[in-house]
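Q: Fold this one first, please.
A: Sequence and structure below.
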Amino acid sequence: MTLCLSGILLSLLILLNWFYDHSKIQQIHKEIDKSIYIDKDFDQGELVNPPKNKKSEYYYYAKIPFYNVSFSILLSKNIDTVGFIRLRNTKIHYPVVQAMNNEYYLTHAFDKTENQAGWIFMDYRNHIDSLDDNTTIYGHARMDGSMFGSLKNVLSSSWQKNRDNYVIFLSTLKEKFIFQIFSIYTIKSEGYYITPNFSNSKKKEIWLSTMKERNIAPIDTEVNINDKILTLSTCQNNQGKRIVVHAKLIKRSNY
């Protein structure tokens, strides 16, 4: 009886903590949405590594407008802010932070209070002002769909059938980027897909080929060693599987 009561109390405590973390994250997110200004920007921008084939899907996505984001308020709330990310038909609409390691924002919210929901953060090895070969952004897969909880949408056939979904918008303090998705898959936890830089072009070519071969979505986006890659990563389940999305930079513009 004592063991049963202890188990029930422990379960209730875990549940209460989850709801507290959830409500705090929701509050922070609402405050962010109210305090910053985001709008579409039809600046033509600079095409990045455009293919010679003018019929390529690249040119369809290159016509999509950027998003302007006001960062002054975000920086006043958290100096670790390095960007803002959006992904269509998901709940991913968050400021991106970066710490000195990849552990801090697993257990801290945007306001730096302890919270098991964590926040959306960039790999500490990446440099946002000069994009690396592969820039990785992480987030917990929360059951309520917050953080990267809705990244699972990319695995559904309905999401994949909509060609307008295959872009990721990333605004930084200095630039606006649009990335075109070229690979979506699930895999057991590993370090290879989050490699930030490659020592030579051959290694990057092999990496790109491997990432593209893993793709399960009905797309065939061309990639080559001159492309800058953005990777989104989150947990799929408690057995260590990951949901991964790779996209290549196709358009950029300075503020």
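Q: Good. Now the second chain.
A: Here it is, same layout.
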Amino acid sequence: MRYLAFALALVSCASLPAMPAPSTPVASATVAASASPESAAALGFDGERAHQHLAYLADPARGGRFTGSPGFEEAAQYVAERFKEIGLEPLGDNGTYFQRFPVQIVDLAGTPTLSRTGADAKTWTHRVDFTESIGGRAGNGSADAKLAVVGGGAATGGQDDFAGVDVKGRIALVTGPTVTGYQENIVQRGGLGILVVGEPTIKYSYIAQQFAQTIPMLVVSETTANELLAPSGKTVTQVRDAVRARRSNTSTLDVGFAVDTNIQMSVPVTPVHQVMASNVVGLLRASGTDAARAVLIGGHLDGVGTDPNGTVFAAANDNASGPSITIEVARVLAAHRSELKRSVIFVAFAGEEEGFLGSESYIARMSSSPGRVESLVAMINLDVIGCCGEILEATNESRALQDRFRAAASRAGVPFNGVGGGGSDQQPFSRRGVPAILVLWSDYILHTTKDTVEKVDLRHLQRAGDVVSAVALDLARGEGP
């Protein structure tokens, strides 16, 4: 999952541009819920098989499956082999399961640093006290300067968090609550770097869409920020309270101020460069007059890779879980092939962490039916679906699909909750009018070194797989228009 779409942290990466509405009609979004002729468990989804797939995909030997890496390609080959064993037709390039496409990426060239110099010198620890953010105005570079505290980075009218301090030639400390465009506001005022209070143990998604001029940006813990603020006698909580007070009453005092502590920071980033990525695409073809229409089921295969010091982010829940369940749902539906009126497409996407690049590429490159976007009656996206909460959730991009999952979960005895839209590979399909949905658990682990195979349990895979299999089979049988 592209982490920042769901994060409560204050940092934000560059947003992808909105896609235009499709000029050609797509399948109707009306998908009515219906009763299933058999229980979900009777379909035969095997959580143990799914867990075995996950154990291979999330093995540290895969190196965290960064898009375009050897470890990702090994994982993609594994998925393709399972698709072949199940009997899916290859729907990639030149009779293969692989849909290959170029992507622009960036990565760390070294370990980021953060330190305080002078008599009270201190060096903080990467992924413990701080982490990097890359995308938009945040990119490669280093800074050696004193601090300017700028609240949430607002810069308009009575909401000017820069009032009271000149950020030019300084490193901006953003305590929050942040506003859209705070990075740009800091750059335009001559800031040399950005420290923003948030979650420091996360490896945030690296977005290669960057401005020509970037500055280094780190996400620091509140504890670290309080240490930086100590010479001023203020805390993060106090600054945030002042920001909120000013936003409700513009006659209150300025919130910006300088802290004459010298800080050194660096974020070593590779140049933006091109790699070849691979979606893995298989087809379970139906027979009959409706076989040219299809249900698409999948999830992203890529993770956030390996740090320069060799630390692997295994990316088990985010998102080896999605492709693992996808493989097993394919096996279940293949056993019901004779019942299918609609075809089913199974996909493991690349490039989700870099901004839905794999799903966008699938849409752009898939020109045949079943499979092309105009042929899709539904898109079911599986992300962070291996742990950790007790409530299965589905997003509301398609209310009809959400209702269908609610009904299937009820039949399977799985607690269910409908939630707002989520930042993952269903979004490019939804923007083009395809009824699309993200299915996940109500709590999840992602983008940390703790996201390992051991965190994903068979029970979560089994319960989610039962529900997804039931919905997918109903749709493939022709339930709904």
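Q: Anything worth noting on the second one?
A: The chain has two domains: 26-104+272-476, 113-267.
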